[in-house]
Write a structure and sequence with these properties.
Layout (H helix, E strand, L loop, with lengths): L1 E7 H15 L3 E5 L3 H4 L2 H6 L4 E3 L4 H13 L3 E7 H7 L1 H9 L6 E5 L17 H6 L5 E4 L3 H10 L7 E4 L4 E4 L13 E3 L5 E5 L3 H14 L4 E5 L2 E3 L3 H10 L3 E8 L4 H12 L4 E6 L9 H7 L4 H9 L1
Parallel strand pairs: 2-3, 2-4, 4-5, 5-7, 6-7, 10-11, 10-13, 13-14
Antiparallel strand pairs: 1-8, 6-12, 9-11
Length: 309
């Protein structure tokens, strides 16, 4: 992990989308008056005839994207997560998932790490909402390399996708040679003292904790669950069997998010105690991203404290 090289996954999304546009003429992009923030403006500048700013009308944006999908286009619809998964939920459910249309919903500014935008804009329920929808694939990327892979990879899949992206800058974790596969988690380290399951911005926190714990003689493995649905059941069961303690961490409500998804697998396949770190059934609050991560207990220090108990 390169802690000196940081980038927000929303920026990586914009850059990858531009490259994808050059490779695939079927790709069209929608935004809801937030293209400078979601970074779809990079695509818009290069391909103005394939970019549609729908204004502050997220529900219309999703419906129009669905219509485009029926015509053979590959629409990428972008806005903040709170508007994508929240305001447009009905359209995603009934106009995209029910008919199983090829729409890519790429939601930026997810979680409390949106920071100063405050509780109303900190979407901490979107993983829960999206993973319960039939036909929907849910992805939450952790760094620049993984995000750029995901943006291009989802164009090859015929069906609804929810890609969760962050405003908060995170270190680059992977190199260009890393192999990714939708539905397959990535294991970093082979420690048997514990497993840290993480997704999105919390993967880098898990890796920081891994290094600190190693110095104390506690060897843990980090599992980057970039695909939350379909989740990698084999990896979860393997880690539950091979390690003494398992912890999940996420920038999301612990109800319905990553921890819940892991618990569902364990309940059915290999009952084991899971400690869930995340937002504990409350709304967010205004503040800097780093301050809020500390306040809600989703930092490397919080992981370390769990293993010190």
């Amino acid at each position: 992990m390169d802690i000196n090289n940081k980038k927000a996954t929303r920026q990586s999304y914009g850059e990858a989308l531009l490259e994808l546009g050059k490779e695939n003429e079927k790709v069209v992009v929608f935004d809801a008056d937030l293209s400078a923030a979601t970074k779809t403006n990079l695509f818009a500048k290069e391909f103005p005839n394939r970019f549609f700013d729908m204004g502050i009308a997220e529900q219309n944006m999703i419906s129009t994207a669905a219509g485009m999908a029926t015509c053979g286009k590959i629409p990428y619809a972008s806005t903040f997560a709170v508007f994508a998964a929240g305001r447009a939920y009905d359209q995603i459910r009934n106009s995209v998932c029910y008919p199983n249309l090829n729409v890519k919903i790429c939601a930026t500014h997810a979680g409390v790490t949106v920071g100063e935008d405050g509780a109303t804009h900190q979407m901490i329920e979107d993983i829960s909402l999206m993973r319960t929808l039939p036909n929907m694939t849910v992805i939450s990327t952790s760094d620049d390399i993984e995000t750029k892979w995901a943006v291009k990879e989802i164009s090859k899949i015929n069906g609804p996708i929810y890609l969760r992206l962050s405003r908060h800058e995170t270190p680059v974790i992977y190199d260009e040679n890393q192999k990714f596969e939708i539905g397959k988690a990535i294991q970093i380290g082979d420690g048997t003292n514990g497993t840290i399951f993480a997704t999105g911005v919390t993967v880098s926190e898990a890796l920081k904790a891994q290094e600190s714990l190693k110095e104390k003689g506690v060897n843990v493995r980090v599992i980057d669950i970039h695909t939350i649905k379909p989740i990698d059941k084999e990896m979860i069961i393997k880690c539950a069997k091979e390690t003494k303690k398992i912890v999940s961490i996420e920038d999301h409500n612990i109800i319905g998010g990553l921890g819940s998804a892991i618990s569902e697998v364990l309940t059915e396949e290999y009952p084991a105690k899971l400690v869930c770190l995340g937002i504990h059934d409350t709304f967010g609050k205004s503040g800097k991203a780093e301050e809020l991560m500390k306040y809600f207990g989703i930092t490397a220090d919080d992981i370390i404290n769990e293993f010190n108990k």
